[in-house]
Amino acid sequence: MCTSSTNLLVALMRASSIPAGYCIFRVRGGESFGHLVPRIIKRTIDHDSVHIVGYVYINNKWIKCDASTDKEFSESSSHISNITKLITWDGEHDDVHLMPKEHIISISDPIDNIDFQLRKKPRKFTQVFGFHVGNGFIDYLRLMGKDISNSKMLEESFEKWYRKKYLKRYILLKLNATRLVNNVRKISWQARYVHKIKK
Predict the structure, then answer these.
(1) Prediction pTM value
(2) Would you tell me how many other CB atoms lie within 10 Å of the CB of residue 154?
(3) Domain count for the chain
């Protein structure tokens, strides 16, 4: 969502003869977005994720502007998480979505384009389905977000909605998530076993 919105922002600025570019935030994905997104999606988010916002050159300086959340989406979800609070950019100061500083790995200087980022292919099976589930989650929040009062309710109701709407994808994602959990447990057990032998 952030990529498409930022592309539009940059295009509109450049069409108005205002210099504009991109800023790439590298963030601890599971932690930065984890308090909003359900576990079924959180499992697919890389620890090192990206959030893309716009850079606009005004008054002899580059200013960051985050266009990723529109008014409709904010109204249906910001009561659940501050991360989707609507940005009211004043054109003079940086304004990006609220993310704890400890979740930010790095912030880039202005970049002319993000083609290299768009060419990257998902590295894992779960990422491929994660994009689909993530888009489904955004659609769900737009439709049902106002009726959700807390994250626990969100977790349960979204999973039921997604299962009903996309059953095959839901089953595949759940099966693969189970394999991932089992692999982590196996690695953890092996590490403890090796540690005991060394002792």
Answers:
(1) 0.74
(2) 22
(3) 1
